[in-house]
Automatic annotation (TrEMBL):
One Pfam family from the record: Multi_Drug_Res
Transmembrane feature ranges: 33-51, 58-79, 85-104
Main location: membrane
Single GO cellular component term: plasma membrane
SUPFAM superfamilies (alphabetical): Multidrug resistance efflux transporter EmrE
Protein family according to the UniProt entry: Belongs to the drug/metabolite transporter (DMT) superfamily. Small multidrug resistance (SMR) (TC 2.A.7.1) family.
GO biological process: glycine betaine transport; xenobiotic detoxification by transmembrane export across the plasma membrane
Subcellular location: Cell membrane
Origin organism lineage: Bacteria, Pseudomonadati, Pseudomonadota, Gammaproteobacteria, Pseudomonadales
Entries under Gene3D superfamilies matching the protein: 1.10.3730.20
Keyword entries, A-Z: Cell membrane, Membrane, Transmembrane, Transmembrane helix, Transport
Name of this protein: Small multidrug resistance pump
Amino acid sequence: MQSWLFLALAIVAEVVATSALKSSEGFTRLAPTALVVVGYVVAFYFLALAIKVIPVGVAYAVWAGLGIVLISLIGWLVFQQKLDAPAVIGMTLILSGVLVINLFSSTSAH
């Protein structure tokens, strides 16, 4: 269970770093740039801890799927970026895939 907490922390750190990437304006603003670097270091540290137990394919599927959805929501809420119907449908399918892996796959049970 601890490995799933590590994965959740990795996802949160990656989402924070990616959100700051938009605000860094091509690494020209110091504070957001520092947040990007620290966020990605923290994200990869916790991802490395998570994949000691969680199979790397499962961990990466969860990481990527939830990261895409969370970043898209932040883009929509914070940066006023539009999400059209195909984007919402696609993210719903991504979340469905993550749920299928976690609820039904014996691979994620390791």
